[in-house]
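Quality-control log, excerpt.
Job 1 of 2 completed; input and output follow.
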Amino acid sequence: MNVLHLSLRQLQIFSAIARTGSTTAASKEISLSQSATSAALNELERLLSIHLFERVGKRLVLNENGRALLPRALSLLNDASEIEHMSNGASLQVQSLRIGASTTIGNYVLPKILRQFLSSYLQQDDSWSSKVLIGNTEKICAAVASFELDIGLVEGPCHEPNLIVTPWIQDELVVVAQGGKKKKNEAPQKLSLETLQQQLWLLRESGSGTRESTDQLLLPYLGSYKRSMEMGSSEAIRNAVEQGLGVSYLSRWVVNEAIKSGRLRYLNTPLPLCRRQSYIVIHRNRVQTMMLQNFLKELSIERLVDE
């Protein structure tokens, strides 16, 4: 039988340094002295007979060896954490779920799913815990990749190599402007590309799935945004458009109510119809608990359509 020389504590210190970029910052995060943190890293590198970081200025940056080790270390640490949870109660490990959702899904789709999930699977359970994190696609995928979340629901492409990405439901993006009165049966005038190029475009921030989809569709036609303003949420953009600040390209999920009430109106443009694919992301090394399996059932397209 081979004797294991590596410890989970060493891997925890390694992952903290990878996340923070220095032994000083990592030591504060894990409540250890800076000298002990450095010593643990040195011992880990000695046991593995490889270097894991390169020093760039004052920061420690993962080298090729470190990048190869990090996902394996995070997987082991996650499994160890779940084993510790099991010691608190036989059913606790399978009765916790950490969900991430990009902002549009998190605000407009996930609440309905959670209501049904609660009714179907959790209403009769005595004890369970859940966490929901809302952020842009990039943030959610990074959190799933680092085992901070069990599952992510995102609107944009995922660029994390260790995640299984499964196509889910689709949405449609539409160009909208401030609402206003119009004559009965009056068809909206079709705007030219030149007119669209002169507009102030209200955009999501880089890393957002909505922004990536917007750029992919608009920039081939507009060339660039001559005038633009970035905002951190689709709700902030919708409110700004309602005030007449500019125009935007938003999800139908976001604008439906404002369109019905007349606060917003669709713009007739030469741009093609854009249907946006959303995705379910899970780490390829994630052990699927019963609670996660049940949540995946709740996400089935057939079940959503039935509702």
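Job 2 of 2 completed; input and output follow.
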Amino acid sequence: MLKEFKEFAIKGNMLDMAVGIILGAAFGRVVASLVSDVLMPPVGLALGQADFSSLFLNLSGKPYATLAEAKAAGAATINYGLFFNSIIDFLIVAFAIFLVVRQINRIRRQEAAPAAAPTRECPFCLSSIPLQATRCPHCTQEVKGG
């Protein structure tokens, strides 16, 4: 059983998956910073609100000037600004992953395209036949080798 576990744990797929998860987490942090620190301030400014992360709906009935103040007091809030930031994060990550997968699929298609076998025309029925064929598979006539 120990030997089987070692074989499972050291397989290339497991290591590839671990590397992918670690890089994915790091990529997520970079995208979160891109959204919150670079993209959202100009968007917020254009829409007349400086910071979306400070947008909230207070459910407690007591007035609070900021989300931090409401959280410190333990008030119930709906943090729709943070939710909006999360949606933008998701859309950017999804688009970036789409671009990467699209490029990988394009490379795979180019690698998978088999080279066309050399062919020639049958002199009797004009069908395409392999270059090395001695008999046409369509009309069964004997043809001279390529």
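Post-run check on job 2. Strands lie at 57-58, 77-78, 119-121, 128-130.
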